[in-house]
Amino acid sequence: MKIKLYSVSIMLVLFVGVHQAAAQGLVTRTQFFRVSGPATTKITAFRPDGTLVWSNAQPGATYTVQTVSSLPGGTNWVDYVRIPVTNGVNTNLIFSFIPPIGMGLIPAGSFTMGDITDTNLNGDAVPTNVYVSAFYMDLNLVSYSQWQTVYNWATNHGYGFDDSGAGKAANHPVQAVDWYDVVKWSNARSQQAGMTPAYYTDVGFTQVYTNGDVDAVYVNWTNRGYRLPTEAEWEKAARGGRFGLRFPWGNTIDWNHANYQSYWVGGTPYYSYDLAPTNGYDAAFTNGVQPYTSPVGSFAPNGYGLYDMVGNVREWCWDWYGTPYGQPTTNNPTGPGTGSYRVLRGGSWFYYAGIARCANRGNDVTDDFEGEIGFRCVRGL
Predict the structure, then answer these.
(1) Over the chain (381 residues), what is each successive 10-residue block's mean pLDDT?
(2) What is the domain partition of the chain in residue ranges?
(3) Theoretical Cys-Cys bridge with 115: which of 55, 125, 165, 197, CB 3.0 to 4.6 Å?
């Protein structure tokens, strides 16, 4: 990691060159950061591990850390995180700029969630402006190997699951996992890593969710343990900072971008934006045995460095499925309080191009574990 400091007006600008392991090898990400707040605030340290410390934070003030990928100019600053101060005047604020290994930063900010390009094709994705705080997300879908590692630890530490999960190979995504199991698995992943879990079976957050099929699960959103993304978090992450497009990279799709099933009628693609060369599944991943998943990270990442946000397997989200979405508030919406189905996003090897759109919303019963459903985790900052 390389660090340089720049003084800009009352703001301190920090250059961070982070070497991060990604699915297809070591990559270097260059980012600039600035911190704005009352002028009396002083940055006291920027540690080699990427942790920023500043003092004299004023109670009642909110400090905003922003990031941009290049200077000079730097006109496209986006919020990295907002930190409100609620205690003493000499509060020390500590914040890390380096994502956990295998995760990427999804910066804070507002965006239009919903179906703009296809004028709300399915009638359940009315464009809605929402704000999402910054968070970390797994760069890749949870692989079968990763699932097994945590699963084996969990079953030896009091956890119970409905199903053991499945995967075509160690480096393919885990699939055939129901919503209850992936929530419990996320808690186990947290505890295995020495972190406080996010999910509980009581409103006081005293009983960690480890067993059974429980619909009344409570989330401690302030914990930094692993959890499923909310629907709003998922869509913001999937778009990769490029909003108003059908897919993370643009408005057309083919097998160079994602693993999905092309659907043709009468010798032509059913969807005009499906540019796959032939009808059916991508032959690169069909060996006669379903599921036709692909190894995680087989395609180029989106603007946030995330792989497989479109295709491969559909992804469980936290929210109950409901309309309208962006509820109960447009500030970090978490979905309806109750429901019959949980949200699925992202399309899969089994579904057509229309299901792979960033705005497309799917859903399923919580105890379903089909061979084209997987997941990835997020963490708070």
Answers:
(1) 39 45 48 71 65 69 75 69 56 62 87 93 92 92 98 98 96 96 98 97 97 97 94 96 94 98 96 97 92 96 94 97 86 93 96 97 88 94 79
(2) 2-98, 141-219
(3) 125
